[in-house]
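Researcher: Please translate sequence to structure tokens.
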Amino acid sequence: MINQLTRKLYLERMYQGDRKFLKIIIAILSTVIIGLFIWIVVIKEEPPVIENWPEIEYVPSYKKIANDAIAEYKRQGRDYYSHIQAYDPFGDYLKYGEIRNYRESRKVTFDGNGVPKVKYGEEFQYNPVTVSQYALTRYGQYILGNKESRNLFISAVDKLLEMQDEVGAFRYDFEWEYYLTKETYKPGWVSGMAQGLALSVFARAYNLTKDGRYLAAGNKTVDFLVTPIEDGGTMSNLKDLDPSLTDYIFFEEYISKPHNYTLNGFMFTLLGLYDWKALNDKYKFDKEKVAEEYFESGVESLAKVLPYYDIDGFSAYDLGHLTFDVRPHIGIGYHGVHIYLLHVLHELTGVRELQVFENIWRYSVE
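Model: Translation complete:
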């Protein structure tokens, strides 16, 4: 009996020793596995891309370009301050209702519902940007007290619904020659600016009417807007400034190779994304916050790229002077547009770089 008891105790101690040994092995293996995981995920992670931003060089000839542009801006009596406002995504868009008006002319007519058509060549066509700007004007007039403008606003919004295709795009039904490439866009071409302005319209239309058609249309508008150009959409990136800048997005008003980075269209599009973000914040529709994500990414790109538009104190229309190696394109009327859009976007984001260039361009014409 003693031998059996001794044997039992021996076996129990042996078993306990094996368990301790097994625990030690498991602990060692766990440490090794965790170490391997850290090495693979952290240590072996691809090194960060070094961003190579083009050097900003002083070009002596830009001085005369800027001086001539400033003189012409003043000669034409241009201003930016008429559109300066405390921006409200459901208010009068950039004071359009207060300032703008639409009349029949040689180049503009109206359909039976009061929606404008613009003459291109020999025919009057619906331009999605014009229809959106008209809708925003009528909306502004309505909230400022002109009750008759409500129906005109709704007619324009419903026309946008008709113009939107199944993938969310607002396609132009006429040809257009793009000045940098001399390419003639065939009917069906698209523009990020058309998508962005439509978002500003649909945000106000849904907030006013709670009509689900406008919500659905706005979501489709965003989906197409953020589709990369190579997949048929309007979103590019800054790779044509340098291949290292592919993570910086841009929404193109005009699609070209290389990219042209038209400034006013980009900022109008960002404002549209902000309006759609504000609608989703108010009604809690978009849990994924798509509009917010692309708005913030776009503003980050804008802050980085603004210095390249500065032509000795005056703003360039696009970056063709960098990507196409041509003389800077100066749009006299667009200088004021750049200023008041920067003002609004800075007010909404607090991003310092936007205010810096708003002030530089504003002071040059005061």
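Researcher: Any highlights?
Model: The longest helix spans residues 2-43.
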